[in-house]
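Exercise: predict the structure of this protein bound to cytidine-5'-monophosphate.
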Amino acid sequence: MSTSVRSFAKINLGLKIGPLREDGFHELRTIYQTIALADVVRVDASKGVGLDIVCKDQRVPADESNTCWRVAERMLRWLKVRRKVRIAIEKRLPVQGGLGAASSNAVATMLALEKELKQPLPPEERLRIASEVGSDLPLFLVGGTVLGTGRGEQVYPLEDLPSLPCVVATPEVGVSTPAAFADWDKQWTKPAGAKLGDPKLTSQNGSDRMNTFSRTVYEWLSGRFTPTGVPSKGWDRAEALLLDLVRTGIENDFESVVFPKYPVIREVKRALERSGAKYVSLSGSGSAVYGLFASQEEADNAAKKLTENGIPAQATATLPRERYWKEMIG
Ligand code: C5P
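Solution:
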Protein backbone atom coordinates (compact mmCIF):
# COMPACT_ATOMS: atom_id res chain seq x y z
CA MET A 1 0.00 0.00 0.00
CA SER A 2 1.14 3.53 -0.64
CA THR A 3 -0.27 7.02 0.01
CA SER A 4 -0.60 9.60 -2.77
CA VAL A 5 -0.87 13.29 -2.01
CA ARG A 6 -1.37 16.22 -4.39
CA SER A 7 1.38 18.71 -3.82
CA PHE A 8 -0.09 22.08 -4.81
CA ALA A 9 1.89 25.12 -5.91
CA LYS A 10 1.83 28.66 -4.50
CA ILE A 11 2.18 32.14 -5.92
CA ASN A 12 3.24 35.28 -4.03
CA LEU A 13 0.77 38.16 -3.99
CA GLY A 14 3.43 40.75 -3.29
CA LEU A 15 6.79 40.20 -1.64
CA LYS A 16 8.93 42.69 0.27
CA ILE A 17 12.55 41.92 1.05
CA GLY A 18 13.86 43.46 4.25
CA PRO A 19 17.27 43.65 5.85
CA LEU A 20 19.78 40.81 5.78
CA ARG A 21 19.74 39.19 9.22
CA GLU A 22 22.63 37.87 11.26
CA ASP A 23 21.58 34.28 10.47
CA GLY A 24 22.13 34.93 6.74
CA PHE A 25 18.41 35.10 5.89
CA HIS A 26 16.46 38.16 4.84
CA GLU A 27 13.48 39.45 6.73
CA LEU A 28 10.44 39.03 4.45
CA ARG A 29 6.82 40.04 4.17
CA THR A 30 4.65 38.27 1.65
CA ILE A 31 1.20 36.90 1.01
CA TYR A 32 1.22 33.35 -0.27
CA GLN A 33 -1.72 31.97 -2.21
CA THR A 34 -2.06 28.29 -3.08
CA ILE A 35 -3.12 27.47 -6.65
CA ALA A 36 -4.64 24.39 -8.27
CA LEU A 37 -1.52 23.23 -10.17
CA ALA A 38 0.15 20.26 -8.50
CA ASP A 39 2.78 17.54 -8.51
CA VAL A 40 1.83 14.15 -7.10
CA VAL A 41 3.91 12.63 -4.29
CA ARG A 42 3.51 8.93 -3.47
CA VAL A 43 4.98 7.57 -0.27
CA ASP A 44 5.41 3.96 0.65
CA ALA A 45 6.75 2.75 4.00
CA SER A 46 7.72 -0.90 4.32
CA LYS A 47 9.84 -3.10 6.58
CA GLY A 48 13.55 -2.36 6.50
CA VAL A 49 15.61 0.82 6.56
CA GLY A 50 16.62 3.51 4.09
CA LEU A 51 15.22 6.30 1.97
CA ASP A 52 14.62 6.21 -1.76
CA ILE A 53 13.60 9.11 -3.96
CA VAL A 54 12.27 8.29 -7.40
CA CYS A 55 11.64 10.98 -10.00
CA LYS A 56 11.87 10.90 -13.79
CA ASP A 57 12.98 14.55 -13.87
CA GLN A 58 16.78 14.50 -13.75
CA ARG A 59 16.89 17.97 -12.19
CA VAL A 60 15.29 16.65 -8.99
CA PRO A 61 18.03 15.40 -6.63
CA ALA A 62 17.58 11.87 -5.31
CA ASP A 63 19.83 12.29 -2.27
CA GLU A 64 19.79 13.98 1.15
CA SER A 65 19.69 17.43 -0.47
CA ASN A 66 16.09 16.72 -1.55
CA THR A 67 13.59 18.50 0.73
CA CYS A 68 11.40 15.34 0.82
CA TRP A 69 14.34 13.30 2.03
CA ARG A 70 15.14 15.86 4.73
CA VAL A 71 11.56 15.88 6.01
CA ALA A 72 11.25 12.08 6.00
CA GLU A 73 14.59 11.64 7.80
CA ARG A 74 13.62 14.13 10.53
CA MET A 75 10.21 12.50 10.98
CA LEU A 76 11.62 8.98 11.36
CA ARG A 77 14.17 10.27 13.85
CA TRP A 78 11.59 12.14 15.91
CA LEU A 79 9.11 9.25 15.86
CA LYS A 80 11.95 6.80 16.59
CA VAL A 81 10.78 4.37 13.92
CA ARG A 82 12.78 2.40 11.37
CA ARG A 83 11.26 1.85 7.93
CA LYS A 84 12.21 1.63 4.31
CA VAL A 85 10.61 4.75 2.83
CA ARG A 86 10.14 5.19 -0.91
CA ILE A 87 9.10 8.63 -2.18
CA ALA A 88 7.98 8.89 -5.81
CA ILE A 89 7.56 12.40 -7.22
CA GLU A 90 5.49 12.90 -10.35
CA LYS A 91 6.68 16.29 -11.60
CA ARG A 92 4.31 18.64 -13.33
CA LEU A 93 5.42 21.89 -11.70
CA PRO A 94 8.58 23.65 -12.88
CA VAL A 95 11.82 23.13 -10.97
CA GLN A 96 13.20 26.45 -9.59
CA GLY A 97 10.02 28.13 -10.79
CA GLY A 98 9.17 30.24 -7.73
CA LEU A 99 6.02 28.17 -7.24
CA GLY A 100 7.30 26.46 -4.09
CA ALA A 101 7.26 23.02 -5.72
CA ALA A 102 10.14 21.52 -3.74
CA SER A 103 8.69 22.88 -0.48
CA SER A 104 5.23 21.63 -1.32
CA ASN A 105 6.63 18.20 -2.24
CA ALA A 106 8.27 18.06 1.18
CA VAL A 107 5.05 18.89 3.06
CA ALA A 108 3.16 16.36 0.91
CA THR A 109 5.78 13.79 1.95
CA MET A 110 5.21 14.68 5.59
CA LEU A 111 1.44 14.24 5.38
CA ALA A 112 1.69 11.04 3.32
CA LEU A 113 4.30 9.52 5.64
CA GLU A 114 2.13 10.30 8.68
CA LYS A 115 -0.64 8.30 7.00
CA GLU A 116 1.67 5.46 6.01
CA LEU A 117 3.06 5.18 9.53
CA LYS A 118 -0.37 5.85 11.08
CA GLN A 119 1.41 8.30 13.38
CA PRO A 120 0.38 11.94 13.02
CA LEU A 121 2.96 14.41 14.30
CA PRO A 122 1.84 16.97 16.88
CA PRO A 123 1.13 20.30 15.10
CA GLU A 124 4.11 22.05 16.69
CA GLU A 125 6.43 19.27 15.51
CA ARG A 126 5.06 19.49 11.96
CA LEU A 127 5.79 23.19 11.96
CA ARG A 128 9.24 22.81 13.52
CA ILE A 129 10.37 20.24 10.95
CA ALA A 130 8.85 22.24 8.07
CA SER A 131 10.55 25.51 9.00
CA GLU A 132 13.85 23.74 9.67
CA VAL A 133 13.88 22.29 6.16
CA GLY A 134 12.98 25.55 4.37
CA SER A 135 11.36 28.96 4.65
CA ASP A 136 8.62 28.10 2.14
CA LEU A 137 7.43 24.84 3.71
CA PRO A 138 5.16 26.04 6.55
CA LEU A 139 2.76 27.88 4.22
CA PHE A 140 1.76 24.47 2.82
CA LEU A 141 0.67 23.40 6.32
CA VAL A 142 -1.92 26.21 6.14
CA GLY A 143 -3.00 26.59 2.49
CA GLY A 144 -5.30 29.20 0.93
CA THR A 145 -4.31 32.83 1.47
CA VAL A 146 -1.43 33.00 3.97
CA LEU A 147 0.54 35.88 5.44
CA GLY A 148 4.26 35.09 5.63
CA THR A 149 6.68 36.95 7.89
CA GLY A 150 10.11 36.33 9.47
CA ARG A 151 12.17 34.63 6.77
CA GLY A 152 8.85 33.54 5.25
CA GLU A 153 8.42 30.60 7.63
CA GLN A 154 6.12 32.34 10.11
CA VAL A 155 2.67 31.82 8.66
CA TYR A 156 -0.78 33.11 9.49
CA PRO A 157 -4.00 32.13 7.69
CA LEU A 158 -5.77 35.14 6.17
CA GLU A 159 -9.43 35.50 5.28
CA ASP A 160 -9.95 32.81 2.68
CA LEU A 161 -10.80 34.21 -0.73
CA PRO A 162 -12.88 32.36 -3.31
CA SER A 163 -11.17 30.94 -6.34
CA LEU A 164 -9.95 33.40 -8.97
CA PRO A 165 -8.92 32.39 -12.53
CA CYS A 166 -5.19 32.51 -13.02
CA VAL A 167 -2.60 31.78 -15.72
CA VAL A 168 0.86 30.60 -14.79
CA ALA A 169 3.53 31.10 -17.44
CA THR A 170 6.77 29.23 -16.98
CA PRO A 171 9.69 30.55 -19.04
CA GLU A 172 12.24 27.79 -19.47
CA VAL A 173 14.87 29.25 -17.17
CA GLY A 174 15.53 28.31 -13.56
CA VAL A 175 16.22 31.13 -11.10
CA SER A 176 18.22 30.30 -7.99
CA THR A 177 16.61 31.92 -4.94
CA PRO A 178 19.90 32.37 -2.98
CA ALA A 179 21.44 34.02 -6.10
CA ALA A 180 18.43 36.34 -6.42
CA PHE A 181 18.80 37.36 -2.76
CA ALA A 182 22.54 37.94 -3.33
CA ASP A 183 21.72 40.15 -6.35
CA TRP A 184 19.27 42.08 -4.19
CA ASP A 185 21.99 42.66 -1.59
CA LYS A 186 24.40 43.83 -4.30
CA GLN A 187 21.79 46.24 -5.62
CA TRP A 188 21.30 47.72 -2.19
CA THR A 189 24.85 47.56 -0.89
CA LYS A 190 26.01 50.91 0.37
CA PRO A 191 27.78 52.53 -2.59
CA ALA A 192 31.22 54.07 -1.96
CA GLY A 193 30.80 57.52 -0.50
CA ALA A 194 27.19 57.03 0.56
CA LYS A 195 26.46 58.29 4.04
CA LEU A 196 24.49 56.50 6.66
CA GLY A 197 21.10 58.09 6.64
CA ASP A 198 21.04 58.19 2.83
CA PRO A 199 17.31 57.90 2.15
CA LYS A 200 17.95 55.25 -0.53
CA LEU A 201 19.54 53.05 2.10
CA THR A 202 17.37 53.70 5.06
CA SER A 203 13.88 54.13 3.75
CA GLN A 204 13.98 51.77 0.78
CA ASN A 205 16.04 48.87 1.99
CA GLY A 206 15.30 49.03 5.68
CA SER A 207 12.29 48.08 7.68
CA ASP A 208 10.31 51.09 6.42
CA ARG A 209 9.39 49.26 3.24
CA MET A 210 8.16 46.32 5.25
CA ASN A 211 6.23 48.58 7.58
CA THR A 212 4.47 50.03 4.54
CA PHE A 213 3.62 46.49 3.44
CA SER A 214 2.24 45.62 6.88
CA ARG A 215 0.19 48.80 6.98
CA THR A 216 -1.23 48.19 3.50
CA VAL A 217 -2.17 44.62 4.33
CA TYR A 218 -3.68 45.71 7.63
CA GLU A 219 -5.76 48.37 5.94
CA TRP A 220 -6.79 45.89 3.26
CA LEU A 221 -7.82 43.36 5.89
CA SER A 222 -9.81 46.02 7.68
CA GLY A 223 -11.67 46.57 4.39
CA ARG A 224 -10.85 50.26 4.44
CA PHE A 225 -8.48 50.43 1.55
CA THR A 226 -9.26 50.36 -2.16
CA PRO A 227 -6.97 52.04 -4.67
CA THR A 228 -9.93 53.82 -6.20
CA GLY A 229 -11.91 54.24 -3.02
CA VAL A 230 -14.55 51.81 -4.30
CA PRO A 231 -14.37 48.05 -4.79
CA SER A 232 -13.32 47.05 -8.32
CA LYS A 233 -16.25 47.29 -10.74
CA GLY A 234 -17.89 44.13 -11.99
CA TRP A 235 -16.36 41.93 -9.30
CA ASP A 236 -18.04 40.52 -6.31
CA ARG A 237 -16.73 41.67 -2.95
CA ALA A 238 -14.30 38.84 -2.33
CA GLU A 239 -12.76 38.99 -5.81
CA ALA A 240 -12.55 42.74 -5.55
CA LEU A 241 -10.74 42.29 -2.24
CA LEU A 242 -8.02 40.19 -3.83
CA LEU A 243 -7.59 42.59 -6.74
CA ASP A 244 -7.57 45.56 -4.41
CA LEU A 245 -4.80 43.90 -2.46
CA VAL A 246 -2.53 43.26 -5.43
CA ARG A 247 -3.18 46.74 -6.81
CA THR A 248 -2.17 48.48 -3.62
CA GLY A 249 1.43 48.40 -4.77
CA ILE A 250 2.65 45.38 -2.84
CA GLU A 251 4.68 44.32 -5.87
CA ASN A 252 7.34 41.64 -5.79
CA ASP A 253 10.80 43.10 -4.95
CA PHE A 254 12.54 40.25 -6.82
CA GLU A 255 11.33 41.72 -10.13
CA SER A 256 13.91 44.51 -9.86
CA VAL A 257 16.82 42.03 -9.80
CA VAL A 258 15.42 39.12 -11.81
CA PHE A 259 14.10 41.06 -14.84
CA PRO A 260 17.42 42.78 -15.70
CA LYS A 261 19.24 39.43 -15.46
CA TYR A 262 16.61 37.44 -17.39
CA PRO A 263 14.91 39.85 -19.85
CA VAL A 264 12.90 36.94 -21.23
CA ILE A 265 10.95 36.82 -17.94
CA ARG A 266 10.07 40.51 -18.23
CA GLU A 267 8.85 39.78 -21.77
CA VAL A 268 6.60 37.04 -20.42
CA LYS A 269 5.15 39.51 -17.91
CA ARG A 270 4.42 41.94 -20.75
CA ALA A 271 2.81 39.19 -22.85
CA LEU A 272 0.51 38.30 -19.92
CA GLU A 273 -0.39 41.96 -19.43
CA ARG A 274 -1.29 42.24 -23.12
CA SER A 275 -3.44 39.11 -22.85
CA GLY A 276 -5.94 40.92 -20.64
CA ALA A 277 -4.84 39.91 -17.13
CA LYS A 278 -6.07 42.20 -14.32
CA TYR A 279 -2.81 41.82 -12.45
CA VAL A 280 0.53 40.23 -13.39
CA SER A 281 3.54 39.46 -11.20
CA LEU A 282 6.63 37.33 -10.82
CA SER A 283 6.09 34.54 -8.27
CA GLY A 284 8.77 34.29 -5.59
CA SER A 285 12.16 34.73 -7.27
CA GLY A 286 10.71 33.31 -10.51
CA SER A 287 10.93 32.23 -13.16
CA ALA A 288 7.14 31.69 -13.12
CA VAL A 289 4.95 34.71 -13.84
CA TYR A 290 1.24 34.62 -13.06
CA GLY A 291 -1.73 36.67 -14.19
CA LEU A 292 -5.11 37.00 -12.47
CA PHE A 293 -8.12 37.05 -14.80
CA ALA A 294 -11.74 38.13 -14.64
CA SER A 295 -13.08 34.85 -16.09
CA GLN A 296 -11.92 31.29 -16.65
CA GLU A 297 -12.62 31.69 -20.35
CA GLU A 298 -10.25 34.66 -20.61
CA ALA A 299 -7.63 32.73 -18.65
CA ASP A 300 -8.00 29.67 -20.94
CA ASN A 301 -7.67 31.83 -24.06
CA ALA A 302 -4.64 33.68 -22.69
CA ALA A 303 -2.85 30.42 -21.78
CA LYS A 304 -3.58 29.02 -25.25
CA LYS A 305 -2.27 32.13 -26.98
CA LEU A 306 0.92 32.29 -24.89
CA THR A 307 1.63 28.62 -25.55
CA GLU A 308 1.10 29.13 -29.31
CA ASN A 309 3.67 31.92 -29.11
CA GLY A 310 6.25 29.59 -27.54
CA ILE A 311 5.69 30.53 -23.88
CA PRO A 312 4.62 27.49 -21.82
CA ALA A 313 1.52 28.54 -19.85
CA GLN A 314 -1.31 26.85 -17.97
CA ALA A 315 -4.70 28.15 -16.98
CA THR A 316 -5.64 27.34 -13.42
CA ALA A 317 -7.26 29.03 -10.43
CA THR A 318 -6.33 30.10 -6.94
CA LEU A 319 -7.09 27.38 -4.40
CA PRO A 320 -8.93 28.34 -1.20
CA ARG A 321 -7.98 26.63 2.05
CA GLU A 322 -10.93 24.28 2.32
CA ARG A 323 -10.44 22.96 -1.22
CA TYR A 324 -6.69 22.79 -0.69
CA TRP A 325 -7.16 20.27 2.10
CA LYS A 326 -10.07 18.44 0.47
CA GLU A 327 -8.33 17.94 -2.87
CA MET A 328 -4.93 17.14 -1.44
CA ILE A 329 -5.74 13.50 -0.70
CA GLY A 330 -8.04 12.29 -3.47
O1 C5P B 1 14.86 28.59 3.53
P1 C5P B 1 15.32 28.21 2.17
O2 C5P B 1 16.00 26.87 2.11
O3 C5P B 1 14.26 28.33 1.15
O4 C5P B 1 16.42 29.27 1.77
C1 C5P B 1 17.37 29.06 0.76
C2 C5P B 1 18.33 30.21 0.75
O5 C5P B 1 17.68 31.41 0.30
C3 C5P B 1 18.93 30.59 2.08
O6 C5P B 1 20.08 29.85 2.38
C4 C5P B 1 19.25 32.06 1.92
O7 C5P B 1 20.43 32.21 1.18
C5 C5P B 1 18.13 32.54 1.03
N1 C5P B 1 17.01 33.13 1.80
C6 C5P B 1 17.16 34.40 2.34
N2 C5P B 1 16.12 34.96 3.04
C7 C5P B 1 14.94 34.31 3.17
C8 C5P B 1 14.76 33.03 2.61
C9 C5P B 1 15.82 32.46 1.92
O8 C5P B 1 18.21 35.02 2.22
N3 C5P B 1 13.95 34.90 3.82
